[in-house]
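G., the chain you wanted modeled:
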Amino acid sequence: LVYDARELYPFVAATAGRPWVTLFWHWIEGRYIRRADAVFTVSESIARRLVVQYGIPAPVVLFNVPEWRPVERTDWLQRRLLLPADRVIVLHQGNIQHGRGAPALIEAMRQVRGGELVFLGGGSMRPAVEQAVLAGGIERVHFLDPVPPAELLAVTASAHIGVTLLEDTCLNHRFALPNKLFEYLMAGLPVVASDLPEIRGVVAGFGVGELVDSGDPASIAAGIQRLVDDPKRRAAIAGGARKACETFSWESASERFTHLYRGFPGIGPS
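Predicted structure as tokens:
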């Protein structure tokens, strides 16, 4: 029995402010996690929380990272949106949902000079965010539908800055390491990211971008503007992004995965 805890399930955004729902999922998870032969999760902070919460051995951490491959810069977004060559493209990829900083991000764009914001993805909040952009007369904000996973990194590599703005609304967000953070880094993009513990460890630890208050448009705008105004820094960050991808690589994570499975009776070598 293997349990893959890809979220801190009792403390996700959907359970915030709902103590009975939290208690129910806490009971369900606690009942079965102690029976598991192995537990996987996606960040060190979630792993530590599961140890304290349920008294289990330390889970194996498998980061949400794509398999490493070289990614060449493209002009996909510039061509698709017919943008001038001097515009700096700020990309938010993935679904637009509650707790991911979209309202503050579009307000921040009122203050950003020289940048174009692109939302690449759908999500429950997309219609409301599109309406807010129109009603507020916010310029230089674009919306595109998702692309197939096999094509995503080529699209990512046509932006100049990546944005991930999880809000600190629940423990699961606080301890998260979003997939898109690593996708941006694999494409060589500097990032503007929420100042949350696990994200901070990557962004500050490898010097790959700006940490901001995800609920404060002024903080977000300032972080974006610093990167928009400094092309030399953006280019230099590509090297740090490569080092981060080598450290948080699926190649090393998969070794932990296969090593654990080979230790199970009947699976590994005799």
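Residues 22 and 154 are 39 Å apart (CA to CA).

Shout if anything looks off.
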